[in-house]
Amino acid sequence: MRQGDHSNTDEREEPIGNDSSQMEISLGEALTIEHVGRLYEEMKGRIEGKDDEMRLDCSKLDQVDGAGVQLVAAFVLEAKNRGVAVRWTGDTVLLREGMALLGLQHVCCGDSLDRVRPT
Fold it and tell me: pTM of the prediction?
């Protein structure tokens, strides 16, 4: 899946405000098989940290494939198992469509993902 063209930037991590208990992971522009390895390592490190809330930033997301959708689904499930809240920023249309195509909408497409709209 792909949306309009964007420049190639790859920001992955930035704190939200001054509260270190809330961290953000940017999903970048392409959440595809070529990028999941690097993103997996970042997510793995974060989920093993002490954060009680993680934000996944979809604001630059332009392209998603099955590997990317599966990575996000696995991350959300693991976060839930560890008691870490997952919040979304940016437009989640591509993720919702990808989850639906793979039959994974029950994993990530609850209230928090459904309510997010472009900012």
Answer: 0.73
71 versus 22: the higher-pLDDT residue is 71
Q: Is 97 exposed, middle or buried (0-12, 13-18, 19+ CB in 10 A)?
A: middle
Which structural domain range is residue 95 located in?
Answer: 19-114
Q: With respect to residue 103, please indicate whether it lies within any of the assigned structural domains.
A: yes
The count of structural domains within the chain is 1
- Give SS3 for 8: coil
Residue 23 confidence (pLDDT) above 70: yes
Other C-beta atoms within 10 Å of 96: how many?
Answer: 18
Q: Is residue 7 part of a domain?
A: no
* In the block, residue with structure tokens 């390895």: 37
Residues present in the chain in total: 119
In the three-class reduction of DSSP (H, G, I as helix; E, B as strand; rest coil), residue 56 is classed as: strand
